[in-house]
Known about the structure:
The protein has one helix at about 30-45, and strands spanning about 1-10, 15-25, 55-60. By secondary structure, it is an alpha+beta fold. The model has no long low-confidence stretch (mean pLDDT about 95).
Amino acid sequence: xxxxxxxxxxxxxxxxxxxxxxxxxxxxxxxxxxxxxxxxxxxxxxxxxxxxxxxxxxxxxxx
Length: 63
């Protein structure tokens, strides 16, 4: 089991930016890793996230 570092950005007035480290498998596609990172962020933030356009980028994968 590897890890991935994902940068998540929510375009609110404040410009919310987060960096999450999440687990991943070597064969996981980017969309699965990003979805897992959004889920973990939502749990960390207490179950809700601010509204706004969202972007995500995988910075690094460690297999």
